[in-house]
From TrEMBL:
Segment forming the signal sequence: none
Domain of life: Bacteria
Family per similarity comment: Belongs to the metallo-dependent hydrolases superfamily. Hydantoinase/dihydropyrimidinase family.
Name this polypeptide is given: Dihydropyrimidinase
NCBIfam families (UniProt xref): D-hydantoinase, PRK13404.1
Length: 476
């Protein structure tokens, strides 16, 4: 036969089907999926393993600027190394526009960071922090044409927050371009108010990060984003949803017929605000500071309800790693003085699949096919990578993870390939683990060993999202 590689005897799982089949790979693509294929130039025995589309993580932060705070712990080399070790083959990080900068120049900076360093394929979402007339009128439409077909806007953070008028302008622009808008829904003024009150009362430990931005603050912003999206008739993706109240806002909008989509993350089914208390309300709680903050066990159940009932389409890591102890000079000492200065974000690109598999599939909350949809297929469809990425069928890129459904592991830092000096999931027991990762038919990671090289991954120019078509057509 003329296959370069045949993966033999595994159980092939897609978002639709679970079948015992061989997978034939030629020139980096899947050439055949059949009951039994002839050997190719190479053969891998996958008996006892699941063969799934490589994970696509559509929410990761790599090599973002520090804005005076500590540097991010992952650039493209370590971040994507961690991604492939965790069974992923595509990531979509963000190209952030600092205020006052041109969007195009910002994108060029990120390409410089990624070029030759990435172990997996990658696209970019844009982060719009300065929606000037020229950004909305010229730069954004041109970048959407060039394959940056989604962008994120923020309703909080000093350096990123947009006011309501700006949100509406960006939404309207997205509608015209056919781009998908991702929204970080937390209310800036409410957080500022709470932060100042807490600091005045001497409540500065990392735990008060969670107190400063309770679920109501996320719910309010979620509702506001949905209302603005309705007004401008633009589909929106509400990212990193933490609990019942924002989940119910999205569900309410979906039942109304609005094109509102939802994403959730491992931290919202595996961590709680109590983790931010650390050992004894001490600074070790800083390891769990992310936004929105993890909530409580009832929130985990609400997130599962949203996952099971289709409120959420994607399960992403929101990988955004910082050093805890850090390499010399990397840590901002200010982070020890108040939760306000603890950088927001935690590592998770490598542990996303095992956590969802273990708590979802093994514990009987979701099917194998739902697992694949939530970790790969829906990301490809949502962000314009389908039908190149996200499934196992002839013509798709041969991006695969061979998965041992019975492997028991304990998540710990020494297993991780990221740049951060800790994992927030330290000590968590999981069942199900990636055994081998193939990027376009190349073995890139095996049993925790990195086999691929920086530069194996390439830039993905993404198509328009089929989910981003406005409810009422393209013309106003
Ligand atoms: O705390 C988080 N999630 N930091 C990453 C930035 C973001 O808002 O996604
Ligand atoms: Zn536009
Ligand atoms: Zn965010
Ligand atoms: Zn994020």
């Amino acid at each position: 036969s003329d296959f370069d590689l045949v993966i033999r005897g595994g159980t092939v799982v897609t978002a639709a089907d679970t079948v015992r089949a061989d997978v034939g790979i030629r020139s980096g693509r899947i050439a055949a999926v059949a009951d039994r294929l002839e050997d190719g130039a190479a053969r891998v025995d996958a008996s006892g393993l699941l063969v799934m589309p490589g994970g696509i993580d559509s929410h990761v932060h790599l090599a973002q600027p520090a804005f005076g705070g500590p540097a991010m712990a992952d650039g493209f080399e370590t971040g994507t190394r961690s991604a492939i070790a965790g069974g992923n083959t595509t990531v979509i990080p963000f190209a952030l526009q600092p205020r006052g900068a041109s969007l195009r120049a910002s994108v060029a900076d990120y390409h410089k960071e990624a070029d030759g360093r990435s172990y997996c394929d990658y696209g970019f979402h844009l982060i719009i922090s300065d929606p000037t007339a020229s950004v909305l009128g010229q730069e954004l439409p041109a970048l959407v044409d060039d394959g940056y077909t989604s962008f994120k806007v923020f309703m909080t953070y000093d350096d990123l927050v947009l006011n309501d008028r700006q949100l509406l302008e960006v939404f309207d622009c997205a509608r015209g371009c056919g781009a998908l808008v991702m929204v970080h829904c937390e209310g800036y003024d409410a957080i500022r108010f709470m932060t100042e009150r807490l600091e005045q009362a001497g409540r500065k430990a990392p735990y008060y990060h969670a107190v400063s931005r309770p679920e109501s603050v996320e719910r309010e912003a979620t509702h506001r984003a949905i209302s603005h999206a309705e007004l401008t008739d633009v589909p929106v993706m509400i990212v990193h949803v933490s609990g019942r109240e924002p989940m119910e806002q999205i569900r309410w909008a979906q039942r109304k017929g609005l094109k509102v989509y939802g994403e959730t993350c491992p931290q919202y089914i595996a961590l709680t605000a109590d983790d931010l208390k650390g050992l004894n309300m001490d600074e070790t709680g800083g390891k769990y500071v992310c936004s929105p903050p993890p909530r409580d066990h009832a929130s985990w159940e609400a997130i599962w309800e949203g996952i099971r009932t289709g409120v959420f389409q994607t399960f992403s890591s929101d990988h955004c790693p910082f050093y805890y102890e850090g390499e010399q000079g990397k840590l901002n000492p200010k982070a020890r003085t108040s939760f306000r200065w603890v950088p927001n974000g935690i590592p998770g690109v490598e542990t996303r699949l095992p956590i969802l598999y273990s708590k979802g599939v093994v514990e009987g909350r979701i099917s194998l096919n739902e697992f694949v949809a939530l970790t790969s297929t829906n990301h490809a469809k949502m962000y314009g990578l389908y039908p190149r990425k996200g499934s196992i069928a002839p013509g798709f890129d041969a991006d695969l993870v061979l998965w041992d459904p019975n492997r028991k592991e304990t998540i710990r830092q020494e297993l991780m390939h990221h740049g951060a000096d800790y994992t927030p999931y330290e000590g968590m027991a999981v069942t199900g683990w990636p055994v081998a990762t193939y990027l376009r038919g190349m073995l890139v990671a095996e049993e925790g060993r990195i086999v691929g090289e920086p530069g194996d991954g390439g830039f993905l120019k993404r198509g328009l999202s089929p989910y981003a078509v406005p409810a009422h057509g393209r013309e106003i």
